[in-house]
Predict the structure.
Amino acid sequence: MKTGFTPIRLDNYVELHLRANPDVGRADLAERLRHAMAASQRGERCQCGQPIWIIGSAEVGLSCFTCITGEAYPDEDYEIDVTKSTNAAEH
Ligand SMILES: [Zn+2]
């Protein structure tokens, strides 16, 4: 059974990613993730019409999970929990 995305807060994902990829710059990673999050929240979609996958889009450009990985469905792959990762609710 595919379980779908595992939601993760932006901060937590940055920590995880940096632990696995020590060469990656924290500010650069956060900037790329924020860019993809902003695009997702604007309603931008992959060229195939699916919603974009923020984490993958931060690495390879704005695309959906399937176009990035070649897999039909996510299986415990992380996705940024946008509702807990933005300041939008505070405005
Ligand atoms: Zn796609």
Summary: The radius of gyration is 13 Å.
